[in-house]
């Protein structure tokens, strides 16, 4: 009985994990429509979107805008 309860608890906790975090910055960079959708959600309904996903979308948008230019060090 205890093993069954432990298994059910583990399955429940696994299902509660964030599902959106599988979207990497590189994957978002290749999909500008998804970036716009995430940014809209971050702006309008922050409770539905994880902070990390908002950061990834912002980084992907920055990469799309600036391209592959190397960062310049301040003089």
Structural class: mainly alpha
What characteristic shape results from the CA principal axes?
A: elongated
What is Rg?
Answer: 18 Å
Q: Number of helical runs?
A: 4
Helix content: 55-70%
Secondary-structure element sequence? HHHH
Segments where pLDDT lies below 50 for 5+ residues?
Answer: none
Distance linking N and C termini? 67 Å
Number of strands: 0
Query: Main β-sheet, in a few words?
Result: none
Which whole number gives the mean pLDDT?
80
**Proportion in β-strands:** under 5%
Protein name: Entry exclusion lipoprotein TrbK
Signal peptide: 1-21
InterPro entries: Eex_IncN-like (IPR047937)
Organism: Thauera terpenica 58Eu
Short characterization:
The protein has a domain at 21-68.
Structure description:
With 75 residues, the chain is mainly α. The protein has a domain at 21-68. The protein has helices at residues 2-15, 25-29, 32-44, 51-66. Helix 3 (32-44) packs across helix 4 (51-66). The model has no long low-confidence stretch (mean pLDDT 80).
For the structure shown, list the relevant keywords.
single chain; mainly alpha; Entry exclusion lipoprotein TrbK; 4 helices; about 80 residues
